[in-house]
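Before we proceed, please read the two lines closing this message. Let me know whether the structure tokens fit the sequence:

…
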Amino acid sequence: MDRSEVVASVAGELHATENAIDTAITQATTLVQSMIGARAALSLSAVTASGSQAKAMETIAALSTAREAIVACHAEMQKDHRKLGWGIYAVGPLNKPDDWETPIGGGEKPTGVGITTRLRAV
């Protein structure tokens, strides 16, 4: 494998991990919605299953923390990539801010956004 293939492989795994966490958050919120709907359909008190529902919501909070961590990992990997002098390398369909601080849609469009597969020659 050459460097570009290795970088693409790691980037693909990072993107897959980000998607997996987002999918888990979606699934966990669907679970909470189902729990609330089931309680209403069965005409049960809000006290019923409040403990299990609270645990499901704790799961969502933990997944949110995991999402923040993987986004921070992504930012650190981007810095490492540039420190190594490998130029810009982005994989995935999403526009991403170049500085990781500017929200997308807020202000000017960051430079270096989009799908790019250019690596600086060594």
